[in-house]
Amino acid sequence: MESVQNEKGESTLSESTRGESTRGQISIHTENIFPIIKKFLYSDHEIFLRELVSNAVDASQKLQKLASYGEYGEEIGELKITVALDEEAKTITISDRGIGMTADEVKKYINQIAFSGATEFIEKYKDKATGEETNIIGHFGLGFYSAFMVAENVEIITKSYREGSQAVRWVCDGSTEYELSDVDKAERGTDIILHIAPDSEEFLDKGRIRGILEKYGRFLPVPVEFDGSVINDATPIWTKAPADLTDEDYRTFYRELYPMSEEPLFWIHLNVDYPFNLTGVLYFPKLANDKFQMKREKIQLYSRQVFITDEVKDVVPDFLMMLHGVIDSPDIPLNVSRSFLQADSNVKKINGYITRKVADKLNELFQSDRAGFEQKFDDIGLFIKYGAISDEKFYEKAKDFALVKNTDGKYFTINEYREHVQANQTDKNEQVVLLYTTDRNQQDAYIDSAKRRGYDVLLMDTVIDPHFINALEYKLEKTTFKRVDADTLDKLIDAGISSESVLSDDDKARLKEVFEQTLNDKSLSVSVESLPADELPVSITMPEFMRRMKDMSALSGEANMFGNMPGGYNVAVNANHPLAQKVLSLDGEAQQKLAKQLYDLALLAQNRLTGPSLTAFVKRTVEGL
Ligand SMILES: Nc1ncnc2c1ncn2[C@@H]1O[C@H](COP(=O)(O)OP(=O)(O)OP(=O)(O)O)[C@@H](O)[C@H]1O
Description:
Blueprint: E1 12-18, E2 21-27, H1 33-40, H2 47-68, E3 81-86, E4 91-96, H3 103-125, H4 133-138, E5 151-159, E6 168-172, E7 177-182, E8 189-196, H5 206-217, E9 224-226, E10 229-230, H6 247-257, E11 266-272, E12 278-284, E13 299-303, E14 306-309, E15 324-328, H7 338-343, H8 345-368, H9 370-390, H10 392-398, E16 403-405, E17 411-413, H11 414-422, E18 432-437, H12 444-452, E19 457-459, H13 465-475, E20 479-483, H14 489-492, H15 505-519, E21 525-529, E22 538-541, H16 544-556, H17 561-564, E23 570-574, H18 578-585, H19 588-605, H20 611-624
Parallel strand pairs: 3-9, 13-15, 18-19, 18-20, 21-23
Antiparallel strand pairs: 1-2, 2-7, 3-4, 4-8, 5-6, 5-8, 6-7, 9-10, 11-12, 12-15, 13-14, 16-17, 22-23
Bound molecules: adenosine-5'-triphosphate.
């Protein structure tokens, strides 16, 4: 037997005929490819079954097509694929009743085409495949030759659908030699017999094979039988027309995909055939608002009903990963590396399409049933806000249905809300100031003050809200957000008018000094302000900017200059409050005691008075009563 190389050193074939059978050699100028396939695909050995069963599906569907074109006159009969395990003989056999192959087709498709695919793969990846990258390579469809990841010997027994075809048997032992001979086979179709290698005997296990078949083949379009039962649903709902489905069908399918999950809120049926092919159903799960956890349930990606992966990271935008369901597209190039996927223009189009569909669906729900939408908003708000923040195109649509809720539990769109407060909450620089609370219990005293002045307060108490606020400030013109305790009432929305002060400038300076001495804390900055007499005598505020910086560094866990900075609090003494004036009329210990008491009251109003300070406060109060 000779091996031949062409000028480029590419693999070519040589063959010689001895009696009935043909022996041949597949030759490449590098080493034997099978040990390399084995090594590189190590982490993903199980995909051999996906590849071989997919081939069987393809062969079956091709026959159906031919029949529908009138090119196959015989009875098709049942097109069931069977997977059989023989633990004794150490074989796994995949049989189909598809188009089969003639001897020439085996030479062409198995020896040449499939082989060159495998060779190309090795050439491309042999130098790159180290460590984690082997996983990526696992996504490269090696097709038929992936059989050699688990088998030391592979037989193909096949008979073409063409009239009068001679069945043939191809055998290859994992070296580069193959043998091709005529055999008897009654039925049309192909049996692939894998003689499992000693190091892959884990696959000679019913549970393991069933597990792999269920993972990749659950929704294959042709029935697949293993161990006496059909493992798949050949017509899952995404392959049907929405008009033929009921709500219950969608819910049932959801339960089938994610048996332990709560009912979904609603769903979108995707169906597009131009400029790319995509079908699927995406479900909106109930998301716990405060838990920004990544859900265990993931979107599953299929290619013509073959499960590919649930790592859809580059195929759908980040924020859409919170959805559940199925996407099926033969146009997503699954058998290539991640970086290619990111750059692929089809993937980008698919991304854009899904984003648009999701936004349109949400808009439709909002327009057709606002009350129902508001009811669901606590569950889908996280998702909508995340989308609006991270995707410009989504924001363009979402701004019409992303809602904000005020402390009275009323929902507004962003524009509605801005209009709602504009008259009352525009400052001297013509900025509309939107007030919010992040914790309605802790900030109740401030919410109360703001509302008494006729201001409205938004509830922004979920994890995504700080980011949502930043995004809105960036996008909306002349609009700022301030937490209710960011400043004293007059300055919170500074209309340029301040209340008259009852105290003289001298008195104010004295008052400031008393508080500074009493508190004796350099990180606090004390100011005396003229606030309405019915406001608290002392209030503690932190400027919006400072607070955001501190929150951010707390969130990131990194101590930056703001995180490290002690205090940052302003202590505002209300010059117009009778008790503040009383401080001035006292001296010595009595004066300090009252100042301290007023400061502690301010802390108490914020729920920040704890430990020994709280105990001392209670004692002092009891004594004074
Ligand atoms: N069960 C089968 N019945 C008929 N023909 C088959 C069968 N299995 C493989 N073939 C033929 O062998 C060819 C090569 O198969 P292989 O799986 O390597 O590549 P592929 O299916 O074309 O692409 P992929 O890399 O996506 O699997 C197929 O295109 C097909 O023509």
